[in-house]
UniProtKB/TrEMBL annotation:
Its EC number is 3.2.2.21. Signal peptide: none annotated. This is DNA-3-methyladenine glycosylase II. Keywords: DNA damage, DNA repair. Residues 8-124 form the DNA-3-methyladenine glycosylase AlkA N-terminal domain. It is an enzyme of class 3 (hydrolase). SUPFAM superfamilies: DNA-glycosylase. Residues 134-296 form the HhH-GPD domain. It catalyses: Hydrolysis of alkylated DNA, releasing 3-methyladenine, 3-methylguanine, 7-methylguanine and 7-methyladenine.
Length: 309
């Protein structure tokens, strides 16, 4: 029997729906997400079932519904509300960040210009982790196309017509050969396949870590998987858990925007970027998000250095 969960969340006066919607508007093909001017529909897997999230922004509030192709337990309502809060960045203490750094001699004007910016978070940590692996060392356009192929290959479709971003079990069911056939490199296919099995089998308890945010455990266990490096871990912590203190100094777009902000004549290396970002702890990832937003306004870049935003 189909089930619908719903919740309504109050939004701060400075909330910027456009930042959230832009994150889900990456794929113009709208295979699994469709974002309007003030609304979003997203296909996802909920407790192994196809589901469709409908999110609508209204003055001062967000109204969310999850239509599940099957039955849902009563306790799912609280879990659904927590998911939506994370996705909207409502767990992020951006007010403290802006108070502390709005007078920063280099970044203050940028923060003021983008006041209220929050980091959109993926529906699940696995979605963030798999997207991070997909986006390693390739352009955003190539990563989005590869992501689309993964969604289609997994083959989960909601009754509304949208495909659903697969859970770890669905990705684990795909062979490395199948992932290679969709365009994943051998290294990425093996890494994604390994991670999916570890998550599905409980060896990487991503959903449990949502409640404990055991950053050191997450970092150490993910780094033990071949093909997962510091950037992938910090990106996953940011987009999957809403953790604001990852140092994304390895991100090419962050370094490019920082170079423009500082007016540096030469490209910045990772060491220089790490040193500059360190002054914003415990919000290093949040200032990186401000740099991402600034980079999107710069002239288009080509090449393989851009990472997944």
């Amino acid at each position: 029997m189909p089930t619908t969960l719903s919740c309504t969340l109050a939004l701060p006066a400075t909330f910027r729906p456009g930042d959230i919607l832009a994150f889900h508007r990456r794929d113009a093909h709208e295979v699994a997400e469709s974002a309007g001017a003030a609304s979003l529909r997203k296909g996802l897997v909920w407790n192994g079932l196809a589901a469709c999230l409908a999110l609508r922004f209204e003055p001062g509030r967000a109204v969310a519904e999850l239509a599940i192709d099957g039955a849902a337990a009563a306790e799912c309502s609280a879990r659904f509300q927590a998911m939506v809060r994370r996705m909207l960045g409502l767990t992020q203490d951006i007010e403290s960040f802006e108070r502390q750094h709005r007078a920063h001699p280099q970044a203050g004007a940028l923060i003021a210009r983008q006041a209220g910016l929050r980091v959109a978070v993926a529906a699940t940590p696995f979605e963030a982790l798999s997207w991070a692996v997909t986006g390693q060392q390739i352009s955003l356009g190539a990563a989005v196309a590869l992501r689309r192929k993964l969604i289609v290959a997994a083959g989960v479709r909601h009754t509304c017509g949208l495909m659903c971003y697969p859970d770890a079990g669905r990705v684990a069911a795909l062979t490395v050969a199948a992932l290679r056939a969709e365009g994943f490199s051998a290294a990425k296919a093996n890494t994604l396949h390994t991670l999916a099995h570890l998550v599905a089998d409980g060896a990487l308890p991503l959903d449990a870590w949502l409640h404990t945010l055991a950053v050191d455990d997450i970092r150490n266990q993910l780094l033990s998987v071949r093909g997962v490096g510091p950037w992938t871990v910090d990106y996953t912590l940011l987009r999957g858990f809403g953790w604001m203190d990852g140092s994304l100094h390895g991100d090419a777009a962050v370094r490019r925007a920082l170079q423009a902000l500082l007016g540096a004549p030469d490209r910045l290396g990772e060491h220089d970027a790490r040193s500059w970002l360190a002054g914003f702890s415990p919000w290093r990832a949040l200032i990186a998000a401000h740099l991402w937003a600034a980079d999107s306004a710069l002239p288009a870049h080509t090449g393989s250095g851009r990472r997944a935003p």
